[in-house]
Amino acid sequence: MNIALIAHDKKKQDMVNFTTAYQYILKDHDLYATGTTGSRIREATGLDVHLFQSGPLGGDQQIGAMIANDEMDMVIFFRDPLTAQPHEPDISALMRLCDVYHIPLATNIAASEIFIRGLEKGDFQWREIVKLKKEQEKQA
């Protein structure tokens, strides 16, 4: 699965801790992250992470483009709800795209742990089925 990992500044260490704890599951998936978050995850875990721009410089929009092109399967976004973000419109657009394209979106550690445990058990196979069906429709 293609998984996006995003964290606001005050949540970056939480994301590093999360990915460290669950690297044994994440290593089997294709990981994408906004710039600084992805770099910190790489350093801490050694996981292979595709890096986009930082969020304020367009990284959220790059991930949004993958969602719109049906190239992203899950978004884990540790948001900081207590700090104003200068790129809030981009964040809102990313979340809206997740809703439009039925992409699972976790915005805190508790929901993210549920997603990761689901990945571990194979509970997100429906995404693969949806992708296969879309491919078959394109070929018909």
Care to give the gist of this entry?
The chain is α/β, with parallel strands linked by helices and 140 residues long.
Describe this structure in words.
The protein has a five-stranded parallel β-sheet with strand order 3-2-1-4-5, sandwiched between helices. The protein has one domain (2-139): Methylglyoxal synthase-like domain (Rossmann fold). Strand 2, helix 3 (35-45) and strand 3 form a beta-alpha-beta unit. The chain starts with a strand and ends with a helix. It has helices at 12-21, 23-26, 35-45, 59-68, 88-100, 109-121, 125-139, and strands spanning 2-7, 30-33, 49-51, 74-78, 105-106. It has 140 residues and is α/β, with parallel strands linked by helices. The longest helix has 15 residues, at 125-139. It has seven helices and five strands.
Q: Which geometry do the CA atoms define?
A: globular
By secondary-structure content and strand pairing, the structural class works out as alpha/beta
Instruction: Determine the N-to-C terminus distance.
Output: 25 Å
* Elements, N to C (H/E): EHHEHEHEHEHH
| Main sheet: strand order | 3-2-1-4-5
Largest sheet: 5 strands, parallel
Helix content: 40-55%
Task: Give the mean pLDDT.
Answer: 91
Total helical segments: 7
C-alpha Rg (nearest Å)? 15 Å
Low-confidence region ranges = none
Domain unit count = 1
Question: Mind telling me the CATH superfamily name?
Answer: Methylglyoxal synthase-like domain
CATH topology-level fold name: Rossmann fold
CATH architecture: 3-Layer(aba) Sandwich
The top-level CATH class is Alpha Beta
Number of strands: 5
The percentage of residues in β strands lies in 5-15%
GO biological process, one term: methylglyoxal biosynthetic process
Organism: Virgibacillus pantothenticus
Catalytic activity: dihydroxyacetone phosphate = methylglyoxal + phosphate
Enzyme class: lyase
